[in-house]
Design a protein that fits this description.
With 100 residues, this protein is an all-alpha fold. Helix content is 58%, strand content 0%. The chain has a single domain, classed as 434 Repressor (Amino-terminal Domain).
Length: 100
């Protein structure tokens, strides 16, 4: 199996553009974007540390599973920063936040 040709690469890139995977933090991210991204990371770390699946985390936070999926994949445009903080505070009431 050799290296894919240009057409195969272009087809693969077009498929990836339409996918709903985890968003990465861009190199020019603002301080707020970095803060929100870090907050999503806290949800992921909590989920792993407590061996919860997505459904269990949704039940714990009393939100639907689709919303948890969006948080875990950093697709948080519909969430205010206050909402993300409030949700995570349910998991960790002693939450200490640092901006910058």
């Amino acid at each position: 199996m050799g290296f894919p040709n240009k057409n195969e690469i272009e087809r693969a890139l077009k498929k990836l553009e339409k996918s709903d995977g985890t968003l990465a933090l861009g190199p020019d991210a603002s301080t707020l974007e970095k803060f929100r991204w870090d907050l999503c990371q806290k949800f992921i770390k909590y989920k792993k540390a407590h061996s919860h699946n997505q459904k269990q985390l949704a039940e714990l936070l009393e939100v639907d599973e689709a919303k948890i999926s969006k948080i875990l994949h950093h697709r948080i445009d519909e969430f205010s920063t206050d909402r993300l903080i409030a949700l995570y505070s349910k998991l960790d009431p002693d939450l200490k936040l640092k901006v910058g």
